[in-house]
From TrEMBL:
It comes from Ceratopteris richardii. Keywords: Lyase. The keyword Transmembrane helix does not apply. InterPro entries: 3-dehydroquinate_DH_AS (IPR018508), Aldolase_TIM (IPR013785), Aminoacid_DH-like_N_sf (IPR046346), DHquinase_I (IPR001381), Shikimate_DH-bd_N (IPR013708), Shikimate_DH_fam (IPR022893). One of its GO terms (molecular function) is 3-dehydroquinate dehydratase activity. The keyword Lyase applies. Residues 241-314 form the Shikimate dehydrogenase substrate binding N-terminal domain. This is Shikimate dehydrogenase substrate binding N-terminal domain-containing protein. GO terms for biological process: chorismate biosynthetic process; shikimate metabolic process. PROSITE patterns: DEHYDROQUINASE_I. Gene3D superfamilies: Aldolase class I, Leucine Dehydrogenase, chain A, domain 1.
Length: 320
């Protein structure tokens, strides 16, 4: 029987100095990260020849080296050739993964030629900071990234509605190669929390609140301790609280702790929902086992129920 592929928990490191980034790797290891992403573009000073060995030698965890340019949402505004040279150097110095943007892949491929170590996997990424495209466009993008020579596909969009995330789950469902598919923003949080259920290669978390590398990242501590992402798998049942706002709710912490206490294979997440009917029409599979409902959606949720117990107050919904 084939072993189910695990989803790695990756700590995104955005330190301003090499020394601090080295220290953050130790913190990430202590917090239970599987991988760390070194965001070189966040370093205030960076000399590849001197600093890459300091970051890569003796590292406690596998690393993704990312040097994100300004035109793809990063902080690097320098010469493109120098940026790609630094990434290639990181590859030759032992980096486990290199993240390269789809737009830059043709030039980077020419730079690699036949000089790509087998131990280093290339993540080819595309980021959309405005919206989540249609399912057809996402599939075309997915195929384009594979054709570029990617070892791992990475698609990141911006969720304008929680229903946008379902399109990314479908990308993961059809993928036959390691794939990262995430949505930024509060509406996209469930893409990060349910990533292990849908077979994503990895999901990102920050070391602490305020140290996110992208909008909507939860902390690594919450991912492991509050949500138990290291235990989530394809069979895990999904529950959650529907509301707007919903980020303040303590329900996920309470319910997930209870699930672990009784040994139930479930995860309880916050659903930031604008339109309840649209949400229920999309997230209507048996994997979604039940919802709590809070303001302002209780009355609308009542209208969506097929059956209402006379004694019930509308605060919970269960799929049958």
């Amino acid at each position: 029987m084939a072993t189910e592929k695990r989803c790695y928990l990756c700590a995104a490191l955005v330190a301003p100095s090499v020394q601090e980034m080295r220290e953050q790797m130790k913190v990430a290891y202590a917090q239970g990260a599987d991988i760390v992403e070194l965001r070189l573009d966040h370093l205030s000073q960076f000399e590849p020849a001197a600093d890459l060995p300091l970051l890569l030698n003796g590292r406690p965890l596998p690393v993704i080296v990312t040097y994100r340019p300004f035109w793809e949402g990063g902080k690097y505004k320098g010469d493109e050739a120098s940026r790609l040279d630094a990434l290639h150097s990181a590859m030759l110095l032992g980096a486990d993964f290199i993240d390269i943007e789809l737009k830059a892949m043709p030039v980077f491929s020419a730079k690699m030629q036949d000089n790509k170590p087998n131990y280093c996997k290339v993540i080819v990424s595309n980021h959309n900071f405005e919206t989540t495209p249609s399912a057809d466009i996402l599939v075309s993008l997915f195929k384009e990234i594979i054709s570029s020579g990617a070892d791992i596909v990475k698609i990141v969009t911006t969720a304008e509605s929680i229903t946008d995330v379902w399109k990314l789950f479908q990308i993961l469902a059809i993928s036959q190669v390691p794939t990262i598919a995430l949505a930024m923003g509060e509406h996209g949080l469930i893409s990060r929390l349910l990533c292990p259920k849908y077979g994503g290669f990895l999901t990102f978390g920050s070391l602490a609140s305020g140290k996110e590398s992208a909008s909507g990242q939860p902390t690594l501590s919450d991912m492991r301790n509050a949500y138990g992402l290291q235990h989530v798998n394809k069979q895990t049942k999904v529950y959650g609280i529907i509301g707007k706002p919903v980020g303040h709710s303590k329900s996920p912490f309470i319910h997930n702790a209870a699930f672990r206490k009784v040994g139930h294979d479930g995860i309880y997440v916050p659903f930031l929902v604008d339109n309840v009917k649209d949400f229920l029409n999309v997230y209507n599979t048996s994997d979604f086992a039940g919802f709590s409902v809070t303001i302002p959606h209780k009355e609308t949720a009542l209208e969506c129920c097929d059956e209402v117990d006379p004694l019930a107050k509308v605060c919970c919904m269960k799929y049958l």
